[in-house]
Structure to design on (307 residues):
């Protein structure tokens, strides 16, 4: 008897775990535990696991590595589940395979991060890969209940263009936030160099992009309501605006309170929520095509008797 793994729950688990990796990765950096395990792939020269002598920093960094291993196992199970689907859906199998490649990339970049003494650009790449994997897991999770046919727009073309511009700006906000982080005080280790940007100037550029993103999101929300778009699309845009406002509030408070670690951690999690809300808006503007109506059954031919 063939045992089939549940693809949809596995895709959801992958989504949650990849989002959680952003949070635990932030905890590693915010607690100064970036070199809690000073080598790679081992935690120490003589052990793959943390030791009592390494203290809490070693435990935090090793815990983050364990989460990466768990993500890899879930990605493998997700790929197997996609292969076992009957009939097999190639798009889902390919996407789950790409998620597995993302785990490998995370491991390689994670190792380089440690071996380069937490180079801020490599640390930023680590974060960006996590956000890309979160997006991939989200799309896979949504597609498990949809047909393979290409989605069709449910709003006019100008609104689709506006949403795509919004998505690009959302990604730019995240990338700018990575640069801001690389210029700030929470480096993951006291001796880690920063990226050389002036924190005030790069934070202002980040804030300008945030204002642009919020403006585009509000404009899209009003436009969807004016165009009598599906309620799900307007609702998704409204949720995005609320998430952005909450994230912006946290960002301003953390800046003017000199970056307390709890608020910085909340801001990192907020970045994940903004990204997922952006993806939800983009997907809400298209839908799977309705199945073609079944052809009417042919009338049975009745024999007639000769007069």
């Amino acid at each position: 008897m063939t045992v089939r793994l549940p693809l949809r729950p596995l895709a959801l688990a992958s989504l949650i775990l990849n989002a959680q990796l952003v949070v635990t990765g932030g905890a590693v950096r915010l607690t100064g535990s970036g070199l809690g395990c000073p080598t790679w792939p081992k935690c120490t020269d003589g052990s793959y696991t943390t030791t009592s002598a390494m203290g809490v920093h070693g435990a935090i960094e090793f815990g983050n590595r364990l989460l990466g291993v768990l993500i890899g196992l879930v990605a493998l199970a997700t790929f197997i589940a996609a292969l076992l689907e009957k009939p097999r859906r190639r798009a889902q199998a390919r996407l789950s395979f790409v998620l597995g490649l993302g785990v490998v990339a995370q491991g390689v970049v994670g190792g380089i991060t440690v071996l380069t003494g937490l180079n801020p650009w490599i640390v930023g790449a680590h974060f960006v890969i996590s956000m890309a994997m979160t997006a991939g897991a989200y799309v896979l999770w949504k597609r498990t209940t949809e047909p393979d046919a290409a989605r069709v727009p449910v709003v006019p073309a100008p609104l689709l263009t506006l949403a795509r511009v919004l998505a690009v700006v959302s990604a730019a906000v995240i990338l700018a936030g990575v640069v801001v982080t690389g210029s700030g005080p929470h480096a993951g280790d006291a001796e880690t160099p920063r990226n050389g940007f002036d924190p005030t100037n790069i934070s202002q550029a980040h804030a300008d992009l945030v204002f642009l993103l919020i403006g585009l999101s509000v404009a899209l929300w009003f436009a969807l309501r004016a165009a009598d778009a599906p309620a799900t699309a307007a609702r998704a845009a409204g949720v995005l605006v609320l998430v952005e406002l909450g994230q912006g509030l946290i960002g301003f408070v953390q800046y003017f309170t000199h970056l307390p670690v709890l608020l910085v951690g909340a801001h990192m999690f907020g970045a994940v929520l903004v990204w997922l809300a952006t993806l939800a808006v983009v997907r809400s503007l298209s839908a799977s095509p309705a199945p073609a109506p079944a052809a009417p059954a042919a009338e049975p031919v009745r024999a007639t008797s000769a007069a």
Q: What stands out?
A: The CA atoms of residues 39 and 114 lie 6 Å apart. The chain has eight helices and two strands. The radius of gyration is 24 Å. The beta strands are 152-153, 286-287.
